[in-house]
Design brief:
The protein is α+β, with helices and mostly antiparallel strands. It has six helices and twelve strands. It has a single domain, classed as Fumarylacetoacetase-like, C-terminal domain (Fumarylacetoacetate hydrolase, domain 2, Alpha-Beta Complex). Keywords: Lyase.
Amino acid sequence: MKTLAELAEYVDEAARTATEIPQISDTHPLSVEDAYAVQALSMQRRYARGEKRIGIKMGLTSRAKMIQVGVSDVTWGRLTDAMREEEGGVVSMSRFVHPRVEPEIAFLMKKPLSGKVSALEAMSAVEAVAPALEIIDSRYKAFKFDVGDVIADNSSSSGFVVGTWHSPEIDISNLGMVLSINGRPQEIGSSAAILGNPVRSLVSAARMVASAGEELKPGDIVLAGGATAAIPMEAGQSVLLEVENLGQIGFNIG
Ligand code: OOG
Ligand code: MG
């Protein structure tokens, strides 16, 4: 039997070296609680290497995403400064195993938030909202995992790009979202696909971080989750997301 610390080292090394690994559940099926413990321990290894926690990401908050990966529990993971990519920049394939990109909405926090909160309370803690692209890169072979695997692997977090911040007065409940590759629309959806309204994802985020004894802090970024299925990334592609009323963001893949 491996300890949770050994499993944390296993997933952390896979992420650090962009190496694909067999699923933990093949040999060590994890409860959700133990999987979050592995995630927390693996993040401590990153922080010890100098990475800074700058927010969190919610995962599997839309049906499209749940269907794509065959896991139907909402999960969360931690974002670090090393994962942030520049809007309009070139993202290198070299630090990933088999990355995918997905359209999201980001929140920027201005007040601490944690525990059981209403949508109104959650929004009053928000400084700004923005369009975002998340790059997910499951470290598991063939992008296959169960709920314990994906939680242990920090909910596949590996990169993200955030666009221009806008006033949280903008109604984000049902904004059209178009994700294009090389100028061709590939996924078309709405922010309403994210739990019916991305604000609900923020409400869940507050509850989930509290259960880990943490809180959302002023300055934190919260990614609400993919509104559509994710698209496999390939070198040479240009990625563009247009979100109604929030503008567009993109990057090139090198
Ligand atoms: C799990 C992470 C899901 C989202 O936005 O739903 C996620 C995965 O699909 O690998 O980031
Ligand atoms: Mg995501």
